[in-house]
Structure formats: C-alpha cells, structure tokens
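[audit] Reproducing an earlier prediction to check determinism. Same input, same settings, fresh worker. If the tokens differ from the archived copy the diff job will pick it up downstream; this log only records the rerun itself.
[audit] input (435 residues):
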Amino acid sequence: MKKVYALLMFILVASLLSVAVVSAQDTTELAVAWWGSQNRADRTIEVINQYMAAHPDVNITYEFANFTDYWTLMNTKAAGQQLPCVMQQDYAYLAEWSTRDLIIPLDPYYESGAIDTTNIDQVLLDGGKVGDSYYGISLGTNSQSIIIDVDAFEQAGIEIPADDWTWTDFENIALELHEKLGIWAIHLGLPGTPSAGIEDVQFWKAYNLGYGLPVNSADGKSLGYEDDTPTIEYFSMINRLQDAGALASGEEAAEYAALPLEGSAIVIGATAMQYQWSNQVVAVYAGAGEERNLKLVPLPRPEDGQSSNYLKPSQFFSITTQCEHPDVAADFINFVTNDLTANETLFAERGVPISSAVREHLEPMLDAAGAETFDFISRIADDVSPLPPPDPPNWSNFTTNGYGPLVAAPLVYQQITPEEAAVVLREQANAILGQ
C-alpha cells in the first residue's frame, strides 16, 4: 500500500512539475526600463499591469531611476548584454545608441501595423528617425515655454505677451515687472556653481535658433555658426537684466538651482515668469496650487526672425538588440501609444500624446495644467522652427566643463564682458566638441 501511495505521489509531483515547466516555457519574459519621477513610475507600472492582465502569457519586469543614474545603469547593462527589451530613450542619445547597434529599427513594425501609426503625424514620427530608419517612437510632444503668472502681470498693469513677442519685448517687460513688483522678472538658473545654468544654455541655444543659426556643426565637432553677434546680444541682455535686478544674480541663482519644480521660483512668487519645458509644467502647477493663474507662452524671437521654439519628442521607447522577443516588445509599445485606457492612466505625463485619437479622448478629462499644455502645443504647432539635430556626444562635457564654469559663471559675476564670453565659448566648444 505504501508503495502504491508513494508511486501516486511521485506521479502527482511529476505532473505538477511538468505543468510548471510547460507554463514557464509558455510565458514570455519582457523587461522595461525608464527614467523619471515616482509619479511617472506609478502610472507606468499600472499600465504594465493592464497589459499583463490582457496578455496573461507575458510577464513584464521593470526598473526605473533618475535621469543620470538611468544612463549609468543602461550603459552597464549594455556592456553585460543585459539590456531590457523596451528602454526609454532620449533624443540626445538616439543616434549614438543606434550607431552602437544597441537598438533596432522600428520600420518593420510601422509597415506591418504592429505599431499602429495611423493617427500620428509624420513630423512626430520623424523625431525618432536616424538616417533612413526609425529607432524610437515618441512618448509625447513638448516644447520650451515661458510660464506667465497672469495675476502678477495684471498687478503690474502689463498685458500678457503675444505668441510672436520679441526679445526686445521680453527685456522691456522684464524691466517693467521688476520696477513695479520688486521681484525678479524671471529665474534662469544662471550658474552660481559649475553644475547650474541648464536653463541658461537652453535660452542661449533658442536665441541663436531664432536667427536660424545652428548651435552645432553637422558633424558635431564644432559650433555650427560663424557669427557671434547673436551670442553677444544674448549675453549683453543677461547682464543688463542682472544690473537692473530683474534677473537673479549668480549667488541668488545658486540658491534656487537644486529646488524641485514644485518649489521653484514662480511657485513661491519670487518671479513672474519661468522658463520650462511644457511636459514639466504639471509639477509647477501642482506646486503652485489651483488658486494660481498661470499661462504658457512661446519663447521670444528676434525682430523679423523665426520662432525660437521647436516641437521635440519628450522621450522615446526603443527596442534593444538584446531583446529576445522584439515582436512582443513592439506590441507593448503599440499598447502604450494607442490604447485609450492605458493613456487615461499615463495621462500625458510624458508630454502631449502623439496619437490624435488619444489626444481627442483625453481632452475632456484634462485638468488646468493638462488643458494649458495641450492648448500651448496646438497654438505653436504651425509656427515652429525645424527640430535641430540631437546634441553631439561631447555636448554634456562642454556644458558642464566649458559653458558653465568658463563662460556663464564669469559672465554673470561680470568677470568677463559679453564679447569676451563669446570668444571663450567658441574656444571651449571647438576644443571639447572636437575631441
């Protein structure tokens, strides 16, 4: 009897193990990685769970980190042949990763409809193109903006700027705001420390873009323009605004450099304007509270110049060459891109959705920040400059070790003139980018 019982138990255990092996073999493992806030993580994890509920044969693991740690992690995984199937990718690195043969072209999935692009404008797809192939699909559209404190403008008796306002308008408005309200007109994160000044770099790039001047050469080995006049004009404007107290000094800027968006200068009422990428506006609105009256306007432009704005993919999803199940990865990306319920959860946290069907579905549900962001992107879409090429590989080295400590910091502390700053900028850019 004992022998029979033992035999039955053996058969039962063997059967269970067999089922487990078959089940494990039938389950597709997929890894997904991204950078961003906890809010982004919560939304993305919920969408991952929604996808797994609809696809019980797929098990998705995931990891996320802040922007800096994310790229350290991904480069380490690339070296160890352990990249996730789906990775969040950045416009600045898309060309580099495709050149390193770490991400695959998405063209076959676009052509087959596995990733449905029916409701996506071509210009939004083209942001993910390197050479003749698509290596990333945008997770949202954004652009640079100036957040306006409408109540502060009304208190000062100043009209809200038109969408085609100029840099001359900007300077005059900034001076008048400071004179009437006694606060800064704008906080640019000017570099009181070598690591600060990111907003200032973007402002300088935008100033040149309005003149149609590319900041980088086609090969990324040097500056892309020969005329330093716009750069000198920009630096001179910065000095004039600082001298008048309308712009934070180097010391004051350093105090605000590390503050989160929810506690930034416009949130606490220290400025009446703030530079911000449009997909970051949600955090500013959340910090300011529902009683605050904020509005987005485009960046100023030169007199008779072109727009200083462009539409940029906020981030991409790409499929890595180390992925064992690229077809499943493509299906997950299609779900994130086009599923209406999934996008109710994501709710444009990564930028305005690229699918027109998704945008139309979400519009009635938008809060104040979302409605303002959608409206802003819609207003400027037909009047923007072409998307500049991605920053070259040594760009972050230049901004960290060249522009910040050797150009902008001495300028804002008035240790060098705008003319001298333009010379140093050119020397540093050509030396570092040319490495």
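[audit] rerun output stored. Observation attached for the diff report: Residues 113 and 334 are 9 Å apart (CA to CA).
[audit] end
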